[in-house]
Amino acid sequence: MGCIRSTLLKRMKTLPDSSEGLTVIQAGATLNEELIRVLERAATKPTIIQTCSQNAQDLNKDDMKSIADLCRNCKHDKILVTHRTAKVVSFAKFLAKQDLHKTILLAADDLELTADFNVGYTLGVLQCLSERDIYIIRDGKLIHWSKVSHDIA
């Protein structure tokens, strides 16, 4: 059973459909209410899509392919995927092989912890990236997918 259950969030009505060139894809079974709270107050208004009916650490290859397809078909070139799992490096390497031609930032941090800072910093970094590629952000550090050798324990 594939993970894409591409439903717009209940609170999407407060976020415009014609957003400012960014998409946030939340991978995981539970809606990150703190992320939504911060985005509602932010000057940048991304399109938000929730995917998956299971937790991000339980994603299989079909689920990852579904998320890659969602990234490919997304109208924006800059995409934040909230992944929040130790398997983020494997997922980044998988996405890099998909030839997506987009700037994709995988947030390995729990964005709920000090959410105002983490969400703001992550969106700011994403907007500044000019090269279309796959990146991971963890503990305030931006890492190109090819510079990480193993998943985070």
UniProtKB/TrEMBL annotation:
Name of the protein: Uncharacterized protein
Domain of life: Eukaryota
